[in-house]
Design goal:
Elements: H1 3-17, H2 20-35, H3 69-92, H4 98-115, H5 121-127, H6 129-140, H7 150-168
Helix pairs in contact: 1-2, 1-3, 1-4, 1-7, 2-4, 5-6
Bound molecules: zinc ion.
Zinc ion binds near residues 1, 31 and 112.
C-alpha cells in the first residue's frame, strides 16, 4: 500500500488515541489491516495473480527489490503527495496534536520502513531471523491488485484518506 495512505490514516489514529504508545501500536497494527485490503502500488505492475494469502490464494505475486525507474518515480510522487498532505495537516491543526499525528503516522509506516525498503530490508532479513518471520506475516496479510484492477486498488486508498482527513479536519 502507498506511503501516503499509511501516513494519513496513521496520523488520524494517533490523534484518535491521544496516547503516544497506544497511537504507535494501533498505527502499526492498522498497517496490516490496511495491507489486507485490495490496494494498488508499485507491486501492481509485477503482480501475476491478485488475491491475498489469508484467503488461501497462495500467490507469490510480487518479486521484490527489483525496482526500476517507474517504481522510483511512483515512490517520489507518493512521498511528495504524502509529505504535502501531512505538512498541510500540521499547518491546519493545533500544535498540541502534532505529536499524536507524527507518532501515529510513524507507527503506521513502521512495517514498511522495516520490511519494504528497497535499500535495507533485504539485508535485515539476511541478518535477523525475526525479521524474516515478520516478513512472512507482513506478506500474509497483504492484497496487491494487478495493474488492470488499479481502479479498485486506488478506490480503497482514496476512501481511507478521505475518511481520515474528514476525521482530522472536522
Ligand atoms: Zn505493508
Amino acid at each position: 500500500m502507498l506511503f501516503t495512505t499509511h501516513t494519513i490514516v496513521g496520523a488520524a489514529i494517533g490523534v484518535a488515541t491521544k496516547n503516544p504508545a497506544l497511537g504507535f501500536a494501533a498505527g502499526f497494527l492498522t498497517h496490516h489491516i490496511m495491507d489486507s485490503l485490495p490496494h494498488f502500488d508499485q507491486g501492481s505492475y509485477r503482480a501475476i495473480k491478485s488475491g491475498p494469502n489469508y484467503l488461501n490464494t497462495k500467490i507469490d505475486n510480487v518479486p521484490e527489490f527489483s525496482y526500476i525507474k517507474r517504481d522510483w518515480i511512483m515512490l517520489l510522487i507518493d512521498f511528495a503527495l504524502g509529505g504535502t498532505l501531512f505538512l498541510s495537516l500540521l499547518a491546519l491543526l493545533p500544535i498540541d496534536v502534532w505529536f499524536y499525528l507524527i507518532i501515529g503516522a510513524l507507527g503506521c509506516l513502521m512495517p514498511d520502513i522495516i520490511d519494504s525498503s528497497p535499500l535495507w530490508s533485504k539485508k535485515l532479513r539476511t541478518k535477523y531471523k525475526l525479521i524474516t518471520k515478520y516478513h512472512k506475516f507482513h506478506k500474509f496479510f497483504h492484497w496487491t491488485v494487478k495493474k488492470n484492477q488499479a481502479f479498485l486498488g486506488a478506490t480503497t486508498q482514496i476512501s481511507l484518506i478521505i475518511i481520515s482527513l474528514a476525521y482530522l479536519l472536522k
